[in-house]
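TASK: fixed-backbone design
INPUT:
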């Protein structure tokens, strides 16, 4: 958890806000079957799709342990029968399979709707074999008990003092596309996550002393004595995260009609909280104008003093906050670049991180006219479009996804013109809304808005 070194000519504000999200330092595929031709192409539809999660959880006295039941229904969008699904237990990523005295933090048991196999990929993947092959267009469901223990580390799935962060804690289904099942390993230096837009309906029973911000539109009801039930409903999101703790809270509605709810630990610098709230409200409206209206109605800003950088989830971002604020604009930009316009975060991390940082740079008006001269590529094998398999082996180079990536997009803007770039991004977001984008998709879309041959541009900026 640290900041990326920023080019020296950028302003102090720019250097402060060029923060790698908490994951600092999967998955491209088609969103539907390609149009039929003769002969028919190989099936490319990402599946299982049209997922619907129903979850009921109960937290203990301080939000460190959660138990409950989870059900997920889904459809087979592929031309091939679906014989199994995989549940990703990303919360086990850092601890892997644990030890006898310190077991994995996320456990699944009592599986119905299929036969559970053994945990694989360092206990982050569970295969469930369906009772019978699910034909194209068919729908079924699996359900299971879930137990979640928040690790004792300050992380996206972790804790800080009395506050708990439950990012990537809830098990989700893996995706199968033209590349097969995406069962990539967990990486702490970035994101490995690849999910399709899904619906979530979640009931979180917790002590009334705890506030629980969560993905989606939330409301509370009185529970049993001393307890409150927070309900969350989220449509067409890729994950669901929540936090818990004795937060202070505030709520405001942006001029564009988005409800921005702020949650912060009492020791968080007040000036930073105010700045995050101000910039968060402005960013959600600005990016709505630039990329398409924010569709979820609500976004939660969760702020603490010691959290490293920031981390994005649909409708919820976690922000380390100093007197100078935090990475709120970058994280809000992720609501579009990864959240609404999905991508394989393991296979092509630049598609969300570079795009979010480019939006961040434009928001703050950074001077990027000569930023490319500061890019130092270690060797010819380093490309902006490398996967997390490469960056995990070269963590000291991962900042290039943010610095070189945002700079490349700024240079593309100057190459094709500001108006063409604005039209490109808005149209590109529209064409991939709730879908999945790829590098090839973006290169094709960019070329379509200009008469200039961009081949030399892609080569120079290592967009391969």
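OUTPUT:
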């Amino acid at each position: 958890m640290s900041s990326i070194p920023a080019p020296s000519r950028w302003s102090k504000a720019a250097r402060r806000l060029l923060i790698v999200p908490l994951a600092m330092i999967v998955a491209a595929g088609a969103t539907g079957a390609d149009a039929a031709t003769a002969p028919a192409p190989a099936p490319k539809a990402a599946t299982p799709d049209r997922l619907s999660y129903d979850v009921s959880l109960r937290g203990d006295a301080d939000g460190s342990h959660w138990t409950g039941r989870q059900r997920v229904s889904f459809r087979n969008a592929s031309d091939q029968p679906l014989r199994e699904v995989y549940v990703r237990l990303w919360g086990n990523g850092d601890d892997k399979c644990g030890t006898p005295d310190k077991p994995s933090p996320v456990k699944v048991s009592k599986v119905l709707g299929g036969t559970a196999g053994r945990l694989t990929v360092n206990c982050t993947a569970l295969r469930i074999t369906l009772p019978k092959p699910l034909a194209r267009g068919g729908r079924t469901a699996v359900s299971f008990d879930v137990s979640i223990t928040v690790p004792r580390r300050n992380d996206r799935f972790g804790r800080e003092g009395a506050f708990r962060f439950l990012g990537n804690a809830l098990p989700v289904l893996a995706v199968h596309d033209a590349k097969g099942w995406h069962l990539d390993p967990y990486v702490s230096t970035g994101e490995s996550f690849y999910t399709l837009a899904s619906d979530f309906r979640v009931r979180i029973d917790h002590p009334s002393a705890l506030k629980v911000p969560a993905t989606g539109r939330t409301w509370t009801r009185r529970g049993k004595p001393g307890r409150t039930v927070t309900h969350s409903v989220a449509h067409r999101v890729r994950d669901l995260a929540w936090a818990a703790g004795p937060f202070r809270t505030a709520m405001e509605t942006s001029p564009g009609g988005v409800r921005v709810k702020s949650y912060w630990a009492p020791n968080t610098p007040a000036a930073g909280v105010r700045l995050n709230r101000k910039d968060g409200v402005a960013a959600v409206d600005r990016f709505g104008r630039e990329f398409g209206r924010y569709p979820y109605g609500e976004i939660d800003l969760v702020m603490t003093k010691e959290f490293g950088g920031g981390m994005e989830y649909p409708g919820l971002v976690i922000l380390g906050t100093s007197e100078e604020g935090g990475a709120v604009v970058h994280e809000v930009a992720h609501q579009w670049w990864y959240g609404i316009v999905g991508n394989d975060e393991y296979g092509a991390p630049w598609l969300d991180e570079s795009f979010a940082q480019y939006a961040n740079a434009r928001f703050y008006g950074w001077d990027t006219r000569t930023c490319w001269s500061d890019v130092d590529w270690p060797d010819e094998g380093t490309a902006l479009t490398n996967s997390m398999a490469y960056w995990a082996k070269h963590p000291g180079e991962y900042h290039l996804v943010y610095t070189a990536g945002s700079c490349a997009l700024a240079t593309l803007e100057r190459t094709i013109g500001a108006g063409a770039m604005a039209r490109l991004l808005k149209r590109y977001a529209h064409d991939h809304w709730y879908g999945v984008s790829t590098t090839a998709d973006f290169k094709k879309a960019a070329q379509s808005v200009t008469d200039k041959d961009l081949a030399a541009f892609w080569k120079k900026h290592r967009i391969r």
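COMMENT: The chain has nine helices and 23 strands.
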